[in-house]
Amino acid sequence: MRRILIAAVCALSLLPACAAASESGLAAECSAGNAKACNSLGIAYLTGNGVAQDPTKASELFEKACSKNLPSACLNLGLQYTKGRGVKQDYVKADELFAKACELNLAVGCFNLAIHSMEGRSGKQDIGKANGLFEKACNLNHGGGCLNLGMNYYRGNGVRQSYGKASEMFAKACDLDRAGGCFNLGLVYTEGKAAKRDYLKALDLYKKACGLGHSGGCFNHALLHRRIYRKSDETVMEYLDKACKLGLKQGCDMKVKLSAGE
To answer: Which domain, by its residues, includes 127?
Structure first.
């Protein structure tokens, strides 16, 4: 059984602009103090959507919108500083902006700041701080926050190890359609870590993870189905094929092996 715990990756992506509008219209609204218009215009300049691409202008617009306490603009400006687009790369400044977005209850701001705290991007690594931020992100229904906090409970990383607490976090991540949460909770039930071993529940969780595009979920569903029913039937082959198509070499290899009757 494949026993890889999957951590979430830092969601360093722009929050989308609001409804499309002309550059002149957004510029007028931004000048009139509409923070959302400034943020949308900033994204347009960053991506070159309807205007000449200008990351520096985008950063200026994000800063203007963030100063009016628009959390998505603070996040976007933080990403500019993280990546050094239109501004000099500055992780300290990026984290200040992610912190402001988080204070304004934007879950991905909390999540990105947590990832930076885990990695020590702007200074000393602080796993305890990261866990607090993952918890806030999770409470704001960010699946990645729940998943990463669950990972740290599972490993005892910055918190007292607790398979039970890890399972709660994985379950919430799964409910929020985070594939890694479903996969990890499946492992917990397969191994009997936090509760009585339950292969059928694990099977359902791997199935959901697979449906969400998790190759390991597809692979483990095939293996566990084969273990439970003691045969390599159409379901086993179907899920190995899915794992293979999602890029998991073990899925491809096992499919060939079973097809050959080995």
So the answer is: 25-201
